[in-house]
Amino acid sequence: MSIQVFGLPVSRGVAIGRAVLVASSRVDVAHYFIDPADAEREYERLRDARTEVSAELMALKQEVPEEAHAELVALLDVHLMMLQDPMLVESAQPWIATRHYNAEWALSAQLEVLTRQFDEMEDDYLRERKADVEQVGERLLKALTRGTGLSPGALANAGARDFAGEDPLVLVANDIAPADMLQFKRSVFTGFVTDVGGRTSHTAIVARSMDIPAVVGAREASRIVRQDDWVIIDGDAGILIVNPPPMVLEEYRFRQRQVELERARLSRLRHTPAVTLDGQTVELLANIELPRDASAALEAGAVGVGLFRSEFLFMNRAGRLPDEDEQFEAYRAVVLAMGGMPVTIRTVDVGADKPLDRASSQEPRHDHMLNPALGLRAIRWSLSEPDMFSEQLRAILRASAFGPVRILIPMVAHLSEVQSVKQWMDRAREEVTARGQAIGEVTLGAMVEVPAAVLILPSLLRTFDFVSIGTNDLIQYTLAIDRADEAVAHLYDPWHPAVLRLIAQTIAQANAMGKGVSVCGEMAGDPAFTELLLAMGLRSFSMHPAQISSIKQRVLRADARTLQLALPAVLDADQPQQACEAAMRTSSKSGAERLAVSSRTVLQ
Ligand code: PEP
Ligand code: MG
């Protein structure tokens, strides 16, 4: 039976493939295809892991003290029995033999099938045995990973193997942490669906940066979909279709081809400078998460990096954070790759929905925080870890010797933070210079992400050379909506008049003071806002590389002078979206007619 599940669209396009269900706790299990000729060897790995776990459990049984409760021994016996049950290892074999999954993936696919069966059992006692199967499964997965000598994360990255000839796959999970999502960059998956998450949650942002269709907040998806079901992800409408009928499938295959054609058409704009009809040059920059993303930025025709989310360098490292030299190498790689174009490096912004990894002991413990989005995150965390902050500043300053660098400080709200940042910067400069290391052209900027920063902007701009508006957080903190919570996602509204007025005010003040201003939140890459932001006076946009060409197309068709005439009406409107649509429709008319209609909009 075909079912439709509705969620939030976060990354455009259509993906059609077989569902790979992954439990949130097993998202970092390696997913890659093996050579079909190696299927028997891969299955042997699984059997070897079973032998190892069996020995482990037997040893545990021996170690149980005599006086211990007999229940413990009985439990170990249950685990031993489950381990030998053909439903576990033998039933994972077809995933290897026919689908060419690696052993870890085959086992985790089979565990999903089994746990689903347990969930459906009527008998309470039997249903509770699910936890035992999960524990045995975890032991097997650990044994497999030990056998390879690689971390699960490293293995997941190995997922970039050629998988031509296999059915396309889409990942379905209850939740995926941003750090785990990162491991799926260049992986075997052609689409993602999660039960939880908001449109600008960091998981959604990473999915978007991968430029593959994704839907989040699909609530029941991971419960409804079964392992290996055929599914369609409609990333434009935010719909997941499970087991689509042939006609629907055909319709979506047609749309998929259209999306590809449109992409190919837009990519021809790559080398066209972004200049409006009235001759205003607009800077289109790229947002990146890792140094290797610089190549996508260049391919998309970005004229620099407007946001390097450096915290992604700090993720999935089991608590061992990158030192100054390692960071320096990473920043330098981006600066060199961009060949003289500016690179904006944001200092670490961990916290809220963006933990470093599950094992890290150095980051703030979010599970103990009452309200992580309002807690020790971004610059607050950096200033509470001065050694780490200084190391990062030194690494960035050193990278500036290889090309222009802009340092960006996240979530600034207090002038005291500004003063502290300045002091640490001066000290880092002295330390680098004292070592005889070169420093090149560096400017310092603040992210405008909380309303307080807008209200004290003139004071902030006395210290900072530029500001970059982080609309994702600005909306979150202005409207008091957790950006990662799908329960309040309908209230997360970039068109809210308060949000638009704060953005307009920031752009106007920065322009008036002759300071640089950019938008690097998701609004910059959303074509629905391009004209409006141009009308506000914005000339610098930073977005995922894949969004650059469609924003460029909007810029090329816009006339900033006419748009500006329509702005007051939009900002004063109770319903800015309607006002904006009306105003921008008029601005796409031509010459005198356009001016006449726009001025009427303003006068109304
Ligand atoms: C933002 O808040 O708009 C932003 C760009 O930062 P992040 O999404 O990483 O919080
Ligand atoms: Mg932010």
From TrEMBL:
Metal-binding in keyword set: yes
Record's protein name: Phosphoenolpyruvate-protein phosphotransferase
Cofactor field: Mg(2+)
Domain PEP-utilising enzyme C-terminal: 264-558
Species lineage: Bacteria, Pseudomonadati, Pseudomonadota, Betaproteobacteria, Burkholderiales
Free-text function comment from the UniProt entry: General (non sugar-specific) component of the phosphoenolpyruvate-dependent sugar phosphotransferase system (sugar PTS). This major carbohydrate active-transport system catalyzes the phosphorylation of incoming sugar substrates concomitantly with their translocation across the cell membrane. Enzyme I transfers the phosphoryl group from phosphoenolpyruvate (PEP) to the phosphoryl carrier protein (HPr).
Pfam family, one: PEP-utilizers
Transmembrane segments: none
Top-level enzyme category: transferase
Location of the protein in the cell: Cytoplasm
EC number(s) from the headed UniProt entry: 2.7.3.9
NCBIfam families xref list: PTS_I_fam
Chief place where the protein resides: cytoplasm
Keywords for this protein: Cytoplasm, Kinase, Magnesium, Metal-binding, Phosphotransferase system, Sugar transport, Transferase, Transport
Catalysed reactions, semicolon-separated: L-histidyl-[protein] + phosphoenolpyruvate = N(pros)-phospho-L-histidyl-[protein] + pyruvate
Source organism superkingdom: Bacteria
InterPro entries: PEP-util_enz_mobile_dom, PEP-utilizing_PTS_enzyme, PEP_util_AS, PEP_util_C, PEP_util_CS, Phosphohistidine_dom_sf, PTS_EI, PTS_EI-like
Gene (UniProt): ptsP
Ranges of residues in domain PEP-utilising enzyme mobile: 166-238
